[in-house]
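Prompt: May I have another protein with tokenized structure?
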Amino acid sequence: MTKMRSWGLSALAGLLLLAACGGSDPNVPGSGAPSGAPTSKGTFTALVSFGDSLSDVGTYAPATSLAGNGTAPYFGGKFTTNSATGTVWVENLATSMGLIVTPAEVGFGTTSVKCPAAANPALANTCTAYGQGGARVTDPNGIGHSGGALTVPVVTQIANHLARFGTFKSTDLILVYAGNNDVFTQFGTFVATATQIQTQLAGGQITADQANVALFNAQTAAQAGMKQAAVELAGYVRSQILAKGGQYVAVMLLSDIGDTPFGNSLPATVKPVLSDLSRVFNLWLTDGLTGQPVQIIDTFTLFKDGYANPARFGIVNNTVPACDAAKIAAITSNRVTDGSSLFCNSTPGAPFNGLRTGADVTTWQFADGVHPTTGGHKIISDAFAAQLHAFGWI
């Protein structure tokens, strides 16, 4: 994600805040809520998750092949601090429920295998972790797709589950956590447009008033894109999950990406734009699920507490990524220069260990600019488990 330069005009900062408060969209979502979800404890035989890199349990492992040819062993594969114990929240939650969950698809570039765990017949029904790094709600061209990432969108993830299993079962715990990459996509477009506006203003090609209008329109377009993604996701939950047999369905709102190391690296006048893209998505997603028999998990509120009170969760550092971009670049012969946790291994003493000196995967919260460490994922899984207990489901 491109980082923006500091804005030179206070007028631009004021306009950003104006657009963040609603922009020009007259259709403000209401304050409705879901209703009718189960209140009794479930008898779960599968955990089914749909989403993006936060829920990815190893889709892109072949990209981290030690041999460099896509074959095992792999030194990475998940967007966290990878190791033999480097699990993500989906795996943690499944384990706590006595379930096994494996990737629905594994691959990179032009080669992938669906349900590789099915090579062992005993695991044939465990391939229900559909989340993929870079995946968007509807658009198949997600982040990293041009570089080989599969980025199967959530709408297709759901379709793939139905194609394999026919329907959802009453014994499925279904978790939907998506929209983050729509935020990054819309924010990236806004950054590019805003940078162009700033250049034109600095060069005298447009006036300050024209720059303000153009910037307002750029942010309004980004928010409209988030509204569309949220409305689409709510529709998929209604028509492709609930209508296809889903009973125990939990939908996660987006957290405030502005609280991540990436978000905190942005100029103070720009960070609110990023935060409000999540807010807009959450409002319209909630609106689209009004009256529906699902439960919503408000990660925006839950994770705010964690960011504000890290010590309460055993975190000593939530500002600096645990993975070292320079080490990862050296390990990958400069193929990966952004410090992506997908390629970050935390095995002590391993020649492919990519941790920053002094970093701790259990007490540092972030692996890279936006993804959690092993400890960060435990915080997420613990929070989600607490919510499921509160629903009476587990």
